[in-house]
Amino acid sequence: MQDDIFKLIWWVLALPLFGFLFQALMGKLVIDNLGPKIGRTMMGAFAVLPILGSFAIAANITAALRALPEDGRSRILTLFEWITVGNLSIPFEVRVDALSMTMVLIITGIGTLIHLYATGYMSEEKDYTRFFTYLNLFVCAMLLLVLGNNLALLFVGWEGVGVCSYLLIGFWYKDLNNSFAANKAFIVNRIGDWGLSLGIFFLMFMAATTLGVTGQGSDPRWLSYDVLLPNIGVMLENYGHWPLAAAAILLFIGAMGKSAQFPLYLWLPDAMAGPTPVSALIHAATMVTSGVFLLNRMSPLFEAVPVAGAVVVIVGCITALLGALIAFGQTDIKKVLAFSTVSQLGYMFIACGVGAYWVGLFHVATHAFFKALLFLGSGAVIHAMAHNQDMRNYGKLSKYIPITFGTMTIGWLAIAGFPFLSGAFSKEEILLETFASKLNWYGLPIGLIGFGVAMLVAVLTAAYMTRMTFMTFFSGEERWKLIPAHAGHGHDDHHDHDHHHGDHGHHDHGPDVHNFFYTDAEMAEIAKRTPHEHHHDLDENHKPHEVPATMWIPLVVLAALSLVGGGWLFFGVQLPEWLASAGVVVHHHEEIKSIPYWIQKVLAKPIFWAATAAFLLGVAWGYARYFKGLPEKDGVDETKWTGFQKAASKQFGIDGTLTWGSINLGKILGDISMAFDKYVIDGIVNGLGGLSKGFGNLFRSMQTGYVRGYAVLMQIGIVALLGYFIYITMIGGAN
Amino acid sequence: MLSHLIPLASVFDDVPLGWFLTLSLLMFTLGGLGVMIRRNPVVVFMCIELMLNAVNLSFLSFAAYPSPVVGDPNQAAMSGQMMVIFVMAIAAAEVAVGLGIIMAIFRQKNEVDVDEMSTLRG
Amino acid sequence: MTLNQIAFLVMGAAALFGAVGVVFFRSPVRAALSLVINFFVLGLIYFMLGSQMLGISQIMVYAGAIMVLFLFVVMMLRDDGKTDKPQTQEGKFLVGLVASLAIAALTYVAVISPTMNYTGEKFNRIYGTPQSIGTVLFTQYVWPFEVISILLLVGIVGSIMLAKRKF
Predict the structure, then answer these.
(1) Chain C hits for B73, Cβ within 8 Å
(2) A438, A692, C39, C73: which could form a disulfide with C62 (CB 3.0–4.6 Å)?
(3) Do A687 and A720 reside in the same domain of the chain?
């Protein structure tokens, strides 16, 4: 009976898959037959329902899992044998434990809300079902990533979410910029996936030899977590510190790619070219946190090699600081949130690096609440502002869109660290864990560095989020009224979507020899031919309007989660114990078990006051600068900006430098390999070819093309054969 | 049972086997020579038919003069005749296709000469 | 010299005349007609060897059908004006002649000379009747027979395609 409920886990995986297949195969049929309005409503419902069903089942399974004793909270279910090679077996198996179910609940829960939101947000989209096809497929792949019980299945899910991310960033593929952003995301992720696959191969090699040697390899599932992770110690004895550290760092490179860590963060800001629900679901709440999930899952490995932890902390620090600084230079509301996401992901990795893996996952959860809320809220703002994303054209929106304003305010307070909201809990835990960490690297106090950076980033986060919120909802006048109305429909390059432009202009994209992309002129032509269902520009006549119910209901739910989610996870769920039952390494501090803990720790500890001070400092700066009105230093005229802000808006040149550098480095490598190809490989091939050509020339003269000549040659051959036969039969050559 | 209808069948058994084989050999040699010295592809085909018939003749000769070492003379005779039937069928198919090819070449080049058909020259 | 031997020599001479005519007549029509002579006489020799069924087939299939086909093609090629002189002057011809003679000599020495006086065992020669051939063809050799029928079908289709298609 108890196990029956765990078998339902297959439905958690299957429902989004069925949803994907239904959207892909039936979508056009339904919409063509029922008309756009009813058809889209129906397909929207069928997009939301599978995810909701998965969430309901997953919630039940989690409840059943919590009812089990702590040391038995892990179930492995096998569907079929997937790969069997020699003594290696990789079954298609899932692992139901606290870690995977926590991730599943985040994915399906937030996923349901965002799907619901998207039915409203995308309601005027022509490719309605294509969007939900990709989105359902994404959920399926992400669930496979977190549920799989071995690294091979994780890799399948990892690549699956990568493909869906690519498809959704480039959803409006007719625009060259979106295609570029999608390509960039895909290519940068390749680097990370290179690291991940090498790490997996490395671990597999060590596991195969180790488990084979010690005789514990009777279970051939080397890549399965329940076989691999308990044997990390044995592998450490066999191979020593550095090979394992190399494997761990390679895995972390995979996490860097997917979770947008420096220097592979480049793709995430550009990924905002995709529709806003995609930014919320994939590029804030779920997919980008899969790196943190990986570190949690492999925590015994990272625990065994402190060097890897130090690398994680340093990369996390750089990313957190850089993301926060760049956010100050952005005027596109989604870009601010994108760099905020980069920064917060760095935060999570700082926590994981110092050994507080559960805190990393805690922050994943709370961040999923408030960042999804902020993204969806920004989508509502963009929706209200005629698809203009420049915050400098907003102002005083609190009057027009009260629900969005209210919920986004909660999100802002949560991320900025207002005491007792969800963000504050996880942030304080990170500060505490970094401060308490004894991690050091050749005398360098990594833990303390992490603490310092985390404090600084806490201040910066509060500041730039205050800037964003005030620029949007307060700050003086309604600035879009300053834009003069267009005489006609002259400039018309956004279609039925929130196509952002002006922020970084159109890329100069070199010769387009295949005519694959539309040029700007062709885009305008297409836009003219395609009738708009509902469209007008942002100008002085614009009236912002509140979003429909399908869009604000998710906002309210997420706002509620942002309010109480942190406390609930911390005190209600007891996240550290809960995750420890899944094999995540948790360092217990003495206080955690004590009863008056929340009084002792939350009010009496200096960390709480430090975090609150950081919050107040950041908000005060933002209030002073932005509440009254848009300061000239951050205004429409960018020449009056401060030097720091100009640099930040250009990402301190990192994006450009890395892109330029990688292109040139790639070109040099390409030249070298081309020369190698030309002179060495081609030399060998041409040499062989020349050899056979010489032989061919030798024998060519025999090929006269005269049939009668061939007949003569044949006769001569027959004579020879007959002579041989007579020789062996009559003269006795056989003996 | 039918032997009374075919009195010829047992009449000729005083001609030695070697005579038939010699005829076959001469026909074969002449056919081979013709393939080498004629340029008209139709005649070349005729020469090939000549060679095939020479082979048929030797098959039937061996069928009619079973060797002492062959176990069942009737079985040997039947096998020889079967081979001849199959050779005839294959020759018929070959002639049909071969002459079709010659016609196709003639339509394109307006002349037929095996020496002109030398595009396979190396 | 028995009567049978004289009869064989007469038929053999006729067959050889036909064969020589095929090779050395310049006109393709004459070559074809001498091939008819050769085939017809061969049919008679098959009778003499006891294969009545095959003798009749030889006359009908070869001397009849196939030769008509040859003559049709010769007619359609309109090659009457051009003579096809046998290329006896070439070095190729000399080499070929030598090779042919060598084949003939070797075969004669190895295969034929031991049989020059062999007149065979006496046994009841009823193997050539249509009945006995049909019995064997549709029992023991039924699969080769079917394969041959497919081959002929393919040949028909192929020659029709060759005749129709414009290259």
Answers:
(1) 121, 123
(2) C39
(3) no
Count Cβ atoms below 10 Å from residue A241 Cβ, excluding itself. 12
Structural domain containing residue C11? 1-77
Q: For the segment A623-649, what is each residue's pLDDT rounded down to a tens digit?
A: 888 777 777 777 777 777 777 777 777
Residue type, A667: K
Judged by a CB distance cut-off of 8 A, whether residue C149 touches chain A is: no
- CA-to-CA dists, residue B77 to B80, B82, C133, angstroms: 5, 9, 10
CA distance B41 to chain C (A): 10
Q: Tell me the sheet residues that pair with A75.
A: A96
- Please give the pLDDT value at position A510: 43
What is the 8-class DSSP label of residue A222?
T
Whether A661 and A730 share a structural domain? no
Is A84 found in the same domain as A126? Answer: yes
User: Domain with C73 in it: what CATH number?
Assistant: 1.20.120.1200
Handedness of CA A336, A337, A341, A343 (dihedral sign): positive
Instruction: Please say whether the dihedral angle defined by the alpha carbons of residues A690, A693, A695 and A698, taken in this order, is positive or negative.
Output: negative
Domain count, chain C: 2
Q: Are A562 and A369 in contact (CB under 8 A)?
A: yes
pLDDT, one tens digit per residue, over A284-342 is 888 888 999 999 999 888 888 888 888 899 999 999 999 999 888 888 888 889 999 99
Same domain, A717 and A696: no
- Partners of chain C (3+ Cβ pairs below 8 A): A, B
- Verify whether the Cβ–Cβ distance C103 to A718 is below 8 Å: yes
Question: Where residue C1 falls among pLDDT bands split at 50, 70, 90?
Answer: confident
* Count of the separate structural domains present in chain A: 3
The reply to whether residue A707 touches residue B117, judged by beta carbons under 8 angstroms, is yes
CB contact set of A11 (below 8 Å; sequence gap of 6+): A53, A54, A57
Task: Answer yes or no: is A481 within a domain.
Answer: no
Question: Would residue A52 count as lying in a domain?
Answer: yes
Identify the segments of chain A with pLDDT beneath 50: 1, 487-514, 532-535, 590-596, 600, 735
